[in-house]
User: What shape does this take?
Amino acid sequence: MSGPRYAVPRDDAPLVVFDFDHTLYDGDSGSHLFVWLIKRSWWRRMLALLLAPVFGPMVAFLPTRRAGISGFVWAGTVGFHRVRDLDALTDAYVAQHVEEIRGRLLPLALEVFHAHRERGDHVVVATGAPPELARAILAFAAHEDVPVVGTLAGPRFGAVVAARHCHNEEKVRMLRELGWGDIDAAYSDSSADLPLLHAARRPVVVNPKPGAIARFVRELPPATPILNWGCPGRGGEPVAVAVGDDGRLPSDPAQPASAR
Assistant: This one.
């Protein structure tokens, strides 16, 4: 099955950046991958159980979350020595879970994603997940092919672990290093992406944690949309249709009263 075909964006086309987890995908895609990697063998499960008392509590707190997750990533990849080994298993994971993954992709989010591409915008995905994972999901389950910026992995401590985490200010830095610094619109659920949302001319918050909404309201421009695209357990204004009948997208400037 082939996906939709889009014209190549003009050099001066607007740049639109999408986060991935809880923005296009309902859940934490990286965690789903690494749980699968751990479950592949009994000894990896035992190793993860041994690590859990130390690294499990660290995952619950933002300052130590990265270190906590790294412990379980190590359990899932210990014995790997090349990034391409992880990439090959990532592709196998996606191929074995296509229907489950497709069910986690948010239809309203993909509607907006498609609409930006149909307009001829430069669309980029920037995610804390491994880029090969987001790329494989979009290509195989959603029939999309866009540039993906994500957490870079490398060999360390006898495993393949995060060498550069695409997170918070580092996400914006990585985008800029690749020439994507002039951001027209950005979509994200996470307060960790406030640097990205601040960098965009028109930020859009989607599927935020209810407890984070007050911070978004306080720190982003007053007209910033805060929406829920059908992500259970998340906050934001529920919407039934993500793209208006007139083709308006959530990131489009509000129409003046005289134009309504």
